[in-house]
Amino acid sequence: MNREQSLTAAFGQSGQAAEKPSLDDQNDQLERPQEQNQDHEELLEEGEQSWPDVVQLHQPPEHSQLLLAERTSCIAVRTYLRLCRLPFAEKTSVHAEFMTQGGRLTGLPMLRLGQFDILAEFEPIVNHVVTTKPSKALGRWLSEEQREDMRAMVNYVETVFTLAETHLSYVDPVNYRLYTARRSGGGHPWLLSLIRRFYKQRQAMRLLRVYQWHHLSADEVLDEVSECCEALLEQLEEQGHGWEGYLYGPQPCELDALVFGHVVGIINTPLPNRELTELLYTYPRLVAFCRRIDASLYGGKLLNEREDSGSDTEEECFQEEEQRQEDKEQKKEHD
Amino acid sequence: MEMTLGATLHVYKGEWGLPSIDFECLRALCLLRFTRCPMDVQTSSNPLRSGAGKLPYLQIGNQKYPGYRQIKRVLDLEGYPIDAHLSTKQKHLSSAYANWVFTNLHAYYHYFLYGEPHNFDSTTRGLYAKRTPFPFNFYYPSSYQREACDVVQVMAGFDVNDKMDKHEGDYLVVNAKKCVNLLSRKLGRKVWFFGDTYSEFDAIVYSYLAIIFKITLPNNPLQNHIKGCQNLVNFINRITKDIFRDEGYSSTKLTKTPSGAGESLTQSEHKFLESEFNTKVIAGVGAVLAMGAFAAWRGIYNQLTARSSTDYDGIDYDDDDLEEGLD
Q1: A101 and A223 belong to one structural domain
Q2: Which of B67, B89, B150 sits opposite A210 (nearest CB)?
Q3: Are A69 and A167 in the same domain?
């Protein structure tokens, strides 16, 4: 029913949803769902649907329940929606993990559109935005082949990073005891939290078994992540826009949002065993790339809590790398 | 590049002209044959001996390497890497696309081969049971069904043990069809997916598609879809006929049709019937010993010894009476 209504709205009628001029106003708007901002008429293209007024992004509380893999997914979705300039309200729900359905990895965050539509995880949300709001979706300038490559990369990056984070949270004994076990109990009374803890651990091990990662050692997991990072670095360098471009051109696409979410989530989360964070710091160009997105979207708030070990900007990283390559060539000549 | 002598890869035997019926075994075989690695392939293998309870496994000397990942690592170290001829960019693309194909086809493969009860009971269980030695052929096929339960639960969100109308197989079929369309587009008219040279991605695609295409299941919606993509069919047939010319096996090609009773016997039971004479002698001696032990337990020896003891007791009494009479 919603679809029919919005299609008739698209064909020549005045649009219901309005473009929110700034993201600060969105909380006010949602407190008064009856009032509609009629300042702009949203021009909907053919076949497009209007973005609902009430859009909520649910995630578990960060200080007590949110695990690493879920946190990175939430940051990625938030970044993507901000890059698309689609308004939404962020809600913290204690029972967010019970509200979701679908999703093949973690199932969070959960996006609630209007009254009935529920979507979970990065890829389904992106697919929904691409099919219903193609004018706002990112990556429109890519050719068909490039878009297929990018989709494959999104899938690959999401799988590798989420599995590595799950492995690090549940299989690594230090992390599990000090970080994950407390949080996976989930704010319930003691017996229920114990049962939930075992249930979530069994689920995580089943996930790792299905993807054939359960028998990997910590070093092998780090190898997989570094292969993924190398692929991303190569993609970044191939673009040739120096230090101002994104992974697939001069404009950001969904892969940028995903990479940002995972890298920032890993760097920012205070895990007892920080091997993955240290691995990411060995790719300073990637960290600087994320810092740039952070500066433009979040005002640098997400990354400036941690001190980095290396250059601040990509320009400096680029120059450092050039220097290193020159040194290598000089050494070869000497030999 | 030294290959240790005595390296053997243990896999399940094939069917319908394919070298193996199992996805993991087929992938491992592709790794071997694409790189022309000189290794033996053993098709009558026991999963129990693998150390992980699953085929394929690689045995070099006394060391065993179960599972595709470990086999790939060993081959890379021994100097037969499958991605040797790819550029770095192609290697990354290969990993990305391999992961994408895994996401879309793995769930389909596991559900329609092992998860769907009708398919499993009529076709797949028999296939695996005939290739596993007695008595493990009762246990190991069900382990694949249990694994499929996990895969389907994680990737498709429903439980195989539920009733049939709760199985959401359509979602899997739609994703698998989209994946096949993409693969067909990517391959185009090329010989391999990355141009002139083979890659791990070719091995993975061949392993999934060849089995799904050739297997005769009651319910297999993707089979006709693959038939519609002529370039993929050519890809599968070319690799089967050229590279696996020696290993392809098809049970319908046997010229000797076995008798009705023979068809139901497994390979190990055939071996027993045709075994040598001295094995039968030992079996006969064993039977006699068993009968003797049973007889002893029943007390036949006690009866024999009881007769001899009464003779001994009966000697003295008559003489004593005679002597007393004389006095």
Answers
A1: no
A2: B150
A3: no
A300 and A155 in a common domain: yes
Same domain, A215 and A275: yes
Q: Of B73-77, B174-178, B296-300, which has the strongest mean pLDDT?
A: B174-178
B158 inside 8 A of chain A by CB: no
Please report the pLDDT score of residue B19 as a whole number: 87
Say if A3 falls within a structural domain. no
Same structural domain, A195 and A74: no
* Nearest-by-CA chain B residue for A234: B89
* Nearest-Cα residue of chain A relative to residue B101: A152
Residue B310 — pLDDT band, cuts 50, 70, 90?
Answer: low
Q: Are B8 and B39 in contact (CB under 8 A)?
A: yes
Q: In whole angstroms, give the CA distance from residue B215 to residue A137.
A: 41
CB contact under 8 A, B99 and A155: yes
Same domain, A179 and A318: yes
How big is chain B, counted in residues?
Answer: 327
Q: How many Å lie between the alpha carbon of A304 and the closest alpha carbon of chain B?
A: 31
pTM recorded for the entire structure = 0.77
Same-domain pairing of A239 and A105: no
Show residues of chain A in contact with B95, CB under 8 Å.
156, 227, 231
**Burial class for A275, CB neighbours closer than 10 Å (0-12, 13-18, 19+):** middle
Domain range enclosing A268 = 144-334
Domain final residue, candidates A67, A100, A132: A132
Dist. CA B142–CA A59, nearest whole Å: 39
Among A75, A109, A132, where does a domain finish?
A: A132
Distances (CA, A) of B85 to B80, B81, B97: 11, 9, 17
State how many domains chain A has.
Answer: 2
B154: which chain A residues are within 8 Å (Cβ-Cβ)?
104, 206-207, 210
Q: Is residue A45 part of a domain?
A: no
In angstroms, the CA A121 to CA A76 distance is: 9
Q: Say how many residues make up chain A.
A: 335
pLDDT in tens, A224-255: 999 999 999 888 888 766 667 788 878 888 89
| Whether residue A264 is found in the same domain as residue A314 | yes
Q: Is B307 on the interface with A (CB under 8 A)?
A: no
Which strands sit side by side in the sheet containing A89-92, from one edge to the other?
Answer: A89-92, A55-59, A110-113, A117-120
Which residue of chain A is at minimal alpha-carbon distance from B110? A210
Q: Is B151 on the interface with A (CB under 8 A)?
A: yes
Cβ-based contacts of A212 with chain B (< 8 Å): 67, 69
Nearest to A52, CA basis, from A30, A79, A72, A69: A30
